[in-house]
Amino acid sequence: MSANEQPNRADLGKDPSRVSGMFDQVAAGYDRTNTVMTVGNDALWRAATTRAVAPRKGERILDLGAGTASSSAALARSGADVVAADFSPGMLAEGKRRHGDLPNLSFVEADATDLPFDDDSFDAVTMSYSLRNVQDPKKAIAELFRVTKPGGRVVINEFSTPPAKLLRGFYKIYNAQVLPRVARLAGTNSEAYDYLNESISAWPDQRTLASWLREAGWIDVAWRNLSFGIVALHRARKPRA
Length: 241
Fold this sequence. Notes:
S-adenosyl-L-methionine binds at residues 68, 86, 111-112, 128. The protein is built from nine helices and seven strands. It is of the alpha/beta class. The protein has a domain at 16-25 and 44-160 and 204-237: Rossmann fold (3-Layer(aba) Sandwich), CATH 3.40.50.150. It is globular.
């Protein structure tokens, strides 16, 4: 973000243009800030997501809310054809700059609630830390279901609710007090990380997200807590018939 550019601050109304503009502004330093903010756990969470998706050569995979395409690139290295989709052109541009040399990775600007893909297009779909930023997350889950082939799979990794009461208290303090300071030290839009704290606090727990997946038609819904439930990895499958 340039010195003369005013920070774009999204809120829990999650207006798509404001959220997209906010991510445009933090794109250049986004991965660096996340690594500092999570004390390096972001790499571990990304590896867990890749293992859960279990990409195979010849498959077509959608990484929705791909951001700078770090997760997309990890999936593409398996040999699968990966589409990195995001509604922030700034994030996609940063992803292309970093990973555009991968021949089986493509980039598409897309609205999660109105995906520009045909029905039954992907063997697997995934979202990491982005469903929370969608104005209508249930509609996004339904769109993921629509574009997944029968028998295909979904993996959603998202910030969640630690089961332990003591950890929940510490986590709230960390998000409210530490995250904005880390963002300022990293030289990025600290107001974006104020929004991050608000969006995490307002996000439902693991059981609720699992119920949304079932409502959309996904089956075999399960989740696994990572880092004591700070994030949760949800998995499900689209019925074959």
